[in-house]
Amino acid sequence: MNKVQNNKAWWLVLPVFLLVAFSAVIPMMTVVNYSVQDIFDQSSRYFVGSDWYRQVLQDPRLHDSLLRQFIYSGCVLLIEIPLGIAIALTMPAKGRWSSLCLIVMAIPLLIPWNVVGTIWQIFGRADIGLLGYTLNAMGISYNYASNTVDAWVTVLVMDVWHWTSLVALLCYSGLRAIPDVYYQAARIDRASNWAVFRHIQLPKMKSVLLIAVMLRFMDSFMIYTEPFVLTGGGPGNATTFLSQTLTQMAVGQFDLGPAAAFSLVYFLIILLVSWLFYTAMTHNDKQG
């Protein structure tokens, strides 16, 4: 007997599609429209085709900001992913200490981004900040406002402090999802801790690690508030990333056409690199 297919349930998804269209698609199409026009005011607009895209792609500010952005995101992933795994492995699996660890690890994630920048701005000051005063008292010359290396290290450490908890919590959830029979078999075979991690824990965490890598890459590649509050993009342009360059172009100079083209190039870069990450990790998972 053939069953009659009922498609009425799709109407329940309609509000979601409308919400996505309103919050994402319509603004995106507006940006696309701006990127092909030279806008003087509401009544004076001229079609320029791909001129803004050529100008943006040849802009040295884009090249410099893109290089800084890739270096920064690469450093974030190289530090936070291994550190998050290590923290997750040391967290207790059961009991009160497990709940306490989860609460403590979640605290940095609850702090707003602008507050994080303000905390580290005060924390790193050489006159009143605990970090800056202590380092200078130890004979280490530290000033994130004037030294490029100090600014980079401070922004990077700030991000590690803020977001490593997310990686650790994701890895912890992946570890807790591993059936106990795997560990029992490892104990019977007298496997070492490294063997357990390499052959049981790490393969079982691949899915959550993929999520962690994707989230941390996309978020670090779009970082704006924390370095803007902490260093203002300085000293010079040392910590001026893509988002800050885009904001300066759109808000500071009010170049809406080039800024729209810049934002679409920015979006495509994030989309392309995220797709490459996803493809590489899923291919590796299939090979395994």
From TrEMBL:
<feature type="transmembrane region" description="Helical">
    <location>
        <begin position="151"/>
        <end position="172"/>
    </location>
</feature>
<feature type="transmembrane region" description="Helical">
    <location>
        <begin position="70"/>
        <end position="91"/>
    </location>
</feature>
<feature type="transmembrane region" description="Helical">
    <location>
        <begin position="97"/>
        <end position="116"/>
    </location>
</feature>
<comment type="similarity">
    <text>Belongs to the binding-protein-dependent transport system permease family.</text>
</comment>
<dbReference type="GO" id="GO:0055085">
    <property type="term" value="P:transmembrane transport"/>
</dbReference>
<feature type="transmembrane region" description="Helical">
    <location>
        <begin position="207"/>
        <end position="225"/>
    </location>
</feature>
<dbReference type="Pfam" id="PF00528">
    <property type="entry name" value="BPD_transp_1"/>
</dbReference>
<keyword id="KW-0813">Transport</keyword>
<feature type="transmembrane region" description="Helical">
    <location>
        <begin position="12"/>
        <end position="36"/>
    </location>
</feature>
<dbReference type="InterPro" id="IPR000515">
    <property type="entry name" value="MetI-like"/>
</dbReference>
<keyword id="KW-0812">Transmembrane</keyword>
<dbReference type="InterPro" id="IPR052730">
    <property type="entry name" value="Sugar_ABC_transporter"/>
</dbReference>
<feature type="domain" description="ABC transmembrane type-1">
    <location>
        <begin position="66"/>
        <end position="277"/>
    </location>
</feature>
<feature type="transmembrane region" description="Helical">
    <location>
        <begin position="259"/>
        <end position="278"/>
    </location>
</feature>
<protein>
    <submittedName>
        <fullName>Sugar ABC transporter permease</fullName>
    </submittedName>
</protein>
<dbReference type="GO" id="GO:0005886">
    <property type="term" value="C:plasma membrane"/>
</dbReference>
<dbReference type="InterPro" id="IPR035906">
    <property type="entry name" value="MetI-like_sf"/>
</dbReference>
<keyword id="KW-0472">Membrane</keyword>
<keyword id="KW-1133">Transmembrane helix</keyword>
